[in-house]
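Hi Q.,

Before the meeting this afternoon, I wanted you to have the magnesium ion prediction in hand. No need to reply - just skim if you have a minute. The sequence and ligand are here:
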Amino acid sequence: MFRIGIGYDIHRLSSGRDLLLGGIKIPYDKGCLGHSDGDALIHAIVDALLGALALGDIGTHFPDTEAKYKNIESSILLKDVFENISTRGWKISNIDTNIILEAPKLGKYKEEIKNNLSKILAIDSNSISIKAKTNEGMDASGHGECIIAQAVVLLQKNC
Ligand code: MG
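Predicted structure with the ligand bound:
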């Protein structure tokens, strides 16, 4: 039995914030604004996992009105959702993602991001795809104002 989920997230870039993607700190002079640590990639994956099982979205599970989620590491949210799907008997088959940002270049961080996610999600890093692209200078992402992340996950359960 299979279920598929899609996730999307966007965060405004601002100076004075760390840039976190997939739980890895990327050296840059700006980071993502957010109630949590602003890790758009993890948020997109969380929404894809929840969406695959029609369990709602990240905002219903971790409301940004709750003080306990202020500046929380998004890896903790991902672990929580992974436990949720695992206790229901589902395994992750694969994850494919896009990160859309004008800068910085992510090429040398992709392996580190994949390794970190593979540890949290108990799947081989070869089953995680991280693709990065610019928006060719167009729109908010292309102007360096924000980072967008998209994720698709396939879940599998033996019946
Ligand atoms: Mg978010």
